[in-house]
Every structure is written in C-alpha cells, then in structure tokens.
C-alpha cells in the first residue's frame, strides 16, 4: 500500500497473523503498487519518451493516493477498462487518450495523465523538454501539424474500435443498475 507520504507500507509486517484480512490487504496493496508502477512507466514514456525518475515515481504515487485514484476497485467499469488498456503499452495509451479526449474527457485515465504531465513539467531534467521552444519554419510547422493530425485521427479510430464496445456495455450495465457503469 502507498502511504500519503509516498512511502510503501507492508501491511503484512504490521499484522503478523497467518493469513486473514491483513494478508488479503497486503496482497491487494501489492497489486495496486504493481499497477501504479506499470502505469507510471507507460504513461511517462507516452508523454515524454523517457522513464520516470524515483522522485517522479514518489510524487505520482502520492498524488494518485491523495486524489483517491489508486484503487481500481473504486472506479467505474469503463474507467477500469480504459486504464487496463492504457497500461499495456504506449501505443494503447495513445489510442485510449485519443478516444477519451473526445468521448470521456473527465475520466480517470485523462486525470492521471494530466496529473503526471503536471509533475513532469516541473521536474528536472524533463522540464527542459517543455521549456525549450521548438523553432520551425512555416513548411516544417505545417508538415508537423499534418503528421500530428493524422496520428491523432488514426489513434482515435483505433481507440474507438477498442473502447466503444466497452463503453456501451458499461452504459448498459449502469442503466440496469448493475454497478458503476460510467
């Protein structure tokens, strides 16, 4: 489990009983830690094409816990689906981000990306990527816009193919009263 100060707490050490609720909590906490570690690796590579430093890991972990975004069990069905897909690979993060930019703007995945982006933007040495202006001529700027637009369009199509069925299913479950759909 991650404490609000970013340190890792081994629940099994706090309760030395054999099995029981403490052991279950320790297993759940270890699972959440693995997901957050995987998430920050993939999201950081997606945003800045670099692995996160230990400081960034600690800050992100603290921020996710403070905003109650660390436990997937507390999230909606569709938010869990978007996070599970996005954590798999940088490409899937790109597809998920494109889809959620248009159709699920205030979802947990976008909130986590924004949170990490804010941390990266103010942490050396990665902050220099945000601070340096990119000098381009008019032809280069237009070519870059076309490439970025095409990349986004293709990512949106892929994201729609991957996530629209999950979103429709979660909406259907929510309408039936079967849980947190959206």
Structure description:
This protein has helices at 11-14, 20-48, 54-66, 77-86, 90-103, 108-121, 127-131, 138-176. The two termini are 26 Å apart. The protein is flat, with a radius of gyration of 19 Å. Residues 6-17 have low confidence and may be disordered. The chain is mainly α and 182 residues long. It has one domain. Helix 2 crosses helix 5, helix 4 (77-86) runs antiparallel to helix 5 (90-103) and helix 4 (77-86) runs antiparallel to helix 8.
Radius of gyration: 19 Å
Q: How much of the residues is beta strand, in percent?
A: under 5%
Tell me, what's the shape?
Answer: flat
Distance between the termini: 26 Å
Write the layout of secondary structure elements.
Blueprint: H1 11-14, H2 20-48, H3 54-66, H4 77-86, H5 90-103, H6 108-121, H7 127-131, H8 138-176
Helix pairs in contact: 2-5, 2-6, 3-6, 4-5, 4-8, 5-8
Question: Any key phrases for this structure?
Answer:
182 residues; mainly alpha; 8 helices
Give a quick precis of the structure.
This protein has 182 residues and is an all-alpha fold. The protein has one domain. Helix content is 70%, strand content 0%.
